[in-house]
Amino acid sequence: MGGSLVREGYAGTGPGAITPDGCAVELYRRLSVGEEPDVIASVAPAGASILELGCGAGRVTHPLVGRGFAVTAVDESAEMLEQIVGARTVRSPIETLDLGAERFDVVLLGSFLVHAGEHRVRDGMLRVCRGHVKDDGIVLIQREGTAHRSELPWERTDPSGGIVRIVSAEPVGDGVRSVHAEYDFGDARWTQTFLSRELSDDQLAGYVEAAGLTVERTLTDDGTWLLARPVP
Length: 232
Description:
single chain, alpha/beta, Rossmann fold, 2 domains, 7-stranded mixed sheet, globular
């Protein structure tokens, strides 16, 4: 399991290395990138330094590098970081990352990581965002869309050819759901179970503000991408 203990409430199955939060490295190598690079590039200055928290296998990292951004890619999985090409890599849990006095034009917290089941983990991630962004920089946060917590089960066909299914999202207490996902590529199949905390607009804004940031605006029509700035 990547040489690390599996986190409680998180699990994954399928071929290849599985990270502590249940992600399969080979699966994330296969999944295609969506609109994330376009959203980020729409607000990031040309050639900006970007701190990508939770880079995985580089699904977003590599398009950003291709657009000329200087990316520092952070992940706790050595197996994930081995897939990264063209970016500086740092192995660390996101919530405890400490790069000293280094600051970035853009700090990116994507992949719905802000919905971490534990308050401690989410608050730590947001503090890391604040601590590593320049005073005139921006923090980009990706939150869940409504489809992830309603009208289940649902599925979509990824452009890579795999079928992604969210099978269930069962309440486990304190506003947290245990989400079960399946990924079927024909020649290989993976599952992942993870914890996700629902956040209202006001709750999310409050947690962001508690970390020393303020939500300035949404970047997408569906409201899943937020732009925040450091509070002076």
